[in-house]
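Batch 3, record 17
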Amino acid sequence: MIFSESSSFPENLDSFLLNLRESDPELATILTETMNLLIGTFDEPTRRAARNRFHDAVLEKLQLVPIEPEQGS
Amino acid sequence: MTRYFLKSISIEGFRGINNEGTPLSLWIESDKPNSVFGQNGLGKSSIYEALCYAIRGDIPKLEELQTFESPTAYYANRFHSGGQSTIAITFVSDDATPVEVGIAIERTARGERLISSPTSHPNPIEFLSSLNQPFALLDHNTFSRFIEDSPLNRGKSFSALLGLDEYLQLGEMLKYVSNAKVIETDLKLSSIQSRISGLKPGVDTANRQAAVSYEAATGESLDLTRPGTESSTTMLNTLKGIPILMPLLSTSELADVNFDQLISAIHEAERGDERAELSTLIRTLTALDLLGPPPPDSERVYGDEVADLNSKIDEIDRLFRETRGPECRHFYQDAATFLESGAWTESRLCPLCESELDTPVADILASRNSIFEEVDNEIRGLSDFWQQSSLHVRLQQLESSSALNYPEPAISVGLSNNAQSGSLTHVEVRVSLQHLNEMEAHLVASKVAAETRKTTIEAELPPSLVKLTEHVEAARSFSIATEQSTSAIALISALENQLQVLSRWKTFINNVSKRFTEEENLLATNQMSRIDSDFKTMYMDVMSSTSVVPALQRGSGDQLHVMLEEFYGLTDLSARALLSESSRNALAISLYLTAAMHHTSPCGFVVLDDVTSSFDSGHQYQLMEYIRTKLQYGLNPSGVQFVIFSHDGLLEKYFDRLADDAVWKHHRILGSSPNGMLFINQQSAQHIRDCAIGLIDAGQLDQATPFVRQYLEFVLLQVIRKVQIPVPIDFAMKDHMQMVGNCLNAIDKALDITAAAGQLVLSAQQLTDVTTIHVPAIVGNWTAHYGTGSPSSLAPAVLRRVLQTVDDYADCFRKDVVNAGGHVAREYYRSLTTA
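Prediction for the assembled complex:
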C-alpha cells in the first residue's frame, strides 16, 4: 500500500508518482509534470477543458520521448 | 496539525441581519458546547449562512435558486443602507500558546467577495479554504440527503467526509483521461494508423515505378532489398558516363540532378525542331495507318451499292408520282379522320361533290393513304441502306480524319440528311462515289509523302540521342519514384514511432488509473474501519438501543451502501428501507460527527443548524449529551468545538440549565429582524432595554413594543431560572404573546405554595410588593393589552413604566450581598426557600 493514512494528499501523491518511476521513469516524469492539470474540483465543461489541457501537455512531452524504451508501467 | 476553533463572529448587513452600525456579535467558547437559540424569523439561520458564505463562499439555498430569481441579490440585507455585508470571524488555535487569526469577509454592493485579515494572516483565502471541510457546517438537509442519496453520490460524500475527496476527484480524472475512447479522440491513434495504412500502397507503387524506370535506364533489375542510395548512385553514374551529359552532372546525389537541363542539352544536340517534326510525322503516319485500306473488292461493292441506291431512288420517285403530290396526303388523312368520326354515313357518296361512287369512299381513301405509307417505307429503306453502305461508312471515316487533311468540303452529312428525307438523287450518289475515290487517292499520296519525309529526317538525326532521351526520362522517373518512396517510408517510420509512444502512454495511464483506484480503495477501507466502531457506538447511544446496528459497505466503484448488520436479531438489511426518519438522521449525524472526530485538518469546529428537528426530546437530549460528554473539545482533548443552532424551546431549557452550571455556553438572539437590530442575550439585555426606551422616546411605539416584550420575557425567565421556579411541561410551547403572563402565573403559584408552607425566603415587604404592586401593574399595563393582541393602546408613559416595573419586580427576588471588597451588591436568592 502506497497511500498512508498519516500522510497528506500531496505527500501520498508524491509517493505514488515516485513508485511509478520504478516501472517507467520517462512516462512517470511526464505524468508528474502534468498531473497538476488533473487536480481540483471539476464539473462539465471545466472537466473537458482540463482533459484537453492535460492531453495537449502530454502530447507535447511525448514528442521528446525516445523510441523503444521498456514497455508498460 | 494545528486546529482552529471559532472564537467570535460579527455580522452586519447580511441576509436577515441588518444591525447597521452595530454588528451582531457572538462570542464562542472552545472548551464547551455553544448553542444559539432564536425564535423563528430572528436571524438564527442568517448567522449559519454567514458562516457558510465566509468559509464556503456561497449559500447553498440561494445557489439553488433559478437565475431569473436573481439569487445574488439576496446575500446582502435588503434594509441595510450600504447594500454591503461584513462578516468578521476570529479563530483561535489549539496550540499550547493559542494564536488568534482574524478574517474579515466583505460582500460588496457589486457582489464581490473580499477577504482580508485584520491580524495579518499571510494567506486568509487559503486559511478559510483549509477550514472548508464537509463536517464543518451541517444542517438537516445534509443528513437527510446522505441517506436518501444514490449509493454513488453517497460514496462521494463519504469520501469527502473521510478527507478523501481529493483522491476521489483525481481518481475520476485519471479514469477519464485513460478512457479508451477519450485516448482515441485526444491522441488520435486510429488516425495515425489510418495514415500509415494510406501511405503504404503509395510506397509499393513508387517502388514498382522505380524498378521499371531503373531497368529502362540501366538495363538491370532493381534489387529492392538493396539500400536506395546504392541504386541512385548507380543511376547517377550511368548518366555521368554519357559525354554530352557529363558536364552537367557535377553533383553526387541523383536527387540534385536537373533533368530539365539534361533534356534541353539533348534537344539542342539532336536538332530539336526536326525531331519535333519527326514526332508529328510519326503521329500522322500512325493516324493514317489507322484509316487502313479501302474495303476488299471495293470497286465492285461500291458499284453494287450505287446500283441499289439508284433503284431505290427510282422506286421512291414512282410511288411519289402515284400519290398526286404530298399536299394531297393531308387531305386524304383528314378525310379518313372525318369518315371515322361517323359524321358521314353515305359510304358511296362523295362528301365533297356528292356524286355516286362505285367503290365506298372509305376504301378509296385507304388505298390512297397506303401509297403514302409505301413511300415512307421506301424512304426508310433508302436511308438505312445508305447509312449501312460501305460507300458511306468509308466516306465518313476519311472525312473525319484530321491527319488526312483533305482540302475539299465534307459531303457525307448532307447526303445522309437527303437520304433520310427521300430527296437523294442519282447525281449525288454518283458524286459521292467520285468524292470517295479522290479521298482514297489523297490518302495514299499523304502516306507516301509523310513516310518519305520521316525517312529523310530519321536519316539525318543521330539515332542514339533518341535512346538517350529515353534514358534520361527513365532516370528522372526513377529519381522521382525513389524520392516519393523514401519520403513515404520516412513518414511511415515517424508515424509508427509516434504510434508506439502513444500506445505506450495509453497502457501506462490505464495502469496508473487502476493502481490509483486500488490505492484509494485501500485507504478508504482503512479509514472506514477506523471510524466503524465509534460511529456504531454513537448511533446506539443516541438511539438508546443496541437492537439496531448500522454498517457501511463499499460497493463497486465509489458506491457506499448503508446497511443494518443487525436489526432486532435479523442481519444484513437495508437501513434506508427499515429506519425511521429520526433513525436515519441519527445514523447520518453519527457518521458525520465521528468522521469529524477522526479528521486531520485545520478545522476544529462543527456547526449544526437545526439538525434535531426530526428527533423527539429524549433523542435530542441523548444527542446533546453525547456531544457534550464525548465529542466536545475540553472534556475530550481530541474532540472538536460545537456550535448548535436551534429554535426548539425545550432544547433551550436544556441549554439554559447547562449554561447555569457553566458547562455550556448558550446564546439567545433577541431584537428585530430583518430590518432592525439583533442582540445576544444577557450581555445585550441592557441594549434591548435601551433600544426600547430610545424607540419610545422617538415615538416609534410599533417598533418599541417587541423590544419591551423581549425585555420583559428575558427578566421574568431570568427570575424563574435563578430562583428555580418550577414551570408546567408545556410552558415553553405556549404562544409567545402569552409568555409574560405565563411567567407571572408560574411565579405566583410558586410563591403561594412556598408561602403556605412557611418556607418563603422573600421578605414580607418583597412579597407584598410583588403581589400587590408589581404584578397588578404589569398585568394592567402590559398583559391586558399585548397579550390580548391590542398593543396599539399602549402609551409611551405606560411602556416606560412597564420596563421599570419589571426591574422592580425582579429586584424583589434579590438580596444584598457584601462582596470581598466590602461593597454591597444585589444577588438573586438561590431559590424561593434558600437565601
